[in-house]
Amino acid sequence: MDAEEQKFIWLLDEDEISTSSDGSSTLCTMCVEESDSTAVLYCDECQENLCEMCVFFHGRQKTTQNHELTHIENSGTSEIRYLLSDLEGEKTANSKMDDLFVKHISEEMDSKSLLFDRLIKRCDDVKMETNLHSQDISTEINSHFDKYIESLEKHRTELLKQTREMSTKHTEFIANQQSVLSSLQENVDEVKKILKTMTSGLGGSSGDWSRLSKLLMTIRQAKVHVTSPETTFCPDADGPIIDQYQFYGQIFSGHLCPAKCYIDCSGLETARVRQKALVILHTLQQEGKSFPCEAKVRVKILEPSGSLCKPKEVRNNMDGTWMIEFLPYETGKHVLHVTVDGQPIKTKSVVFNVKHGWREHTGRWHCCSVCSENRRNDEPCDYCCNHDSVVHPGGPHWTCCGKLTKHSECDTYTWRKRRNQTSPYNRPLSKCSFDLSLMNSVIKEVTL
User: Residue 71 pairs with which residues in a beta bridge?
Assistant: First the structure.
């Protein structure tokens, strides 16, 4: 008997269950507690008689769901035939349902086939669009870099042109100096001849003396300088903008002059402990122009205790200025030393004072009842109400120091020092405090 027969056999009514030849019913072996449960099937492998409920659970278990069940001999055959006929009808209905499912699945697969065919064709179109898009991007990239390279060539050509012009100008200057030196050399030779004539015993005429005086004046007033070309190429300096492209690199006709470099000390006026301080170093050439090229900048900061405070950062802004950033850890006078290319600058040392860190207000931003007319906080003001000698500010102020600016630094310590109102420190009593005199009396009583 198959599983479907096992599923429906237990649905038989109790009235339709057959009895044995002697009129007694076969009892279920598994239902030991209920003596009136009638068995309907028999399991050959388990050798047990099963009632309707036991048949159901017998078919649900994995170990017994494939066991073969046979009808008990004393059961009537008409009920079994009726049950088998119902099973055959159910099988026919199930086959119809299967055909319906197969039809729906076939229609779904046909639609999916059409969809996949369209997607396959769409893949070919997308491949073509991707190739065209890639070609457009490649063309745009090539155009961009062609323009960039063309602009870069213009910048390089301009730099080379400036170099040639500066070289030509310096060569012409040296040629002029050389001609001046040649004429001066001729004047020196002529002076020597005149002096030789005068020393030979013949004496010099008035014309020789006048000529000699003119030659000497010309020789002594001559100013000739023969120097090497003072040109520097700075690749990191901001260059021109060509075809909307920013380029870098400039040629400077001059050398760095450490003796003319100076420091902007405005950032040291507000130096505080554990807060970054900034110093600006200006590097200049001999002519007084800014020098934006690289240089060897060394910074030393001497603290009041004698230790050295190393700068956090020394950065070249590439515009003739350097940013020096440091973090002081001590209060008092500090000394700043800066050298450029191993030589001291114009301001050899800078002395500045480092103040305490920013002090937050310990009180409240308050306007007491004296000036607010009970419109704000009625609590007493620590600054104006607890000290008779202090004049009331007459407006909103901090209760700790009396400052009238809300975003300001607390000045409590300075205020107390100025008015000699420093109060001694009174340690508050804890919750566990006790009376020492009472304790001593208790100790005396115990000792007695």
Answer: 41
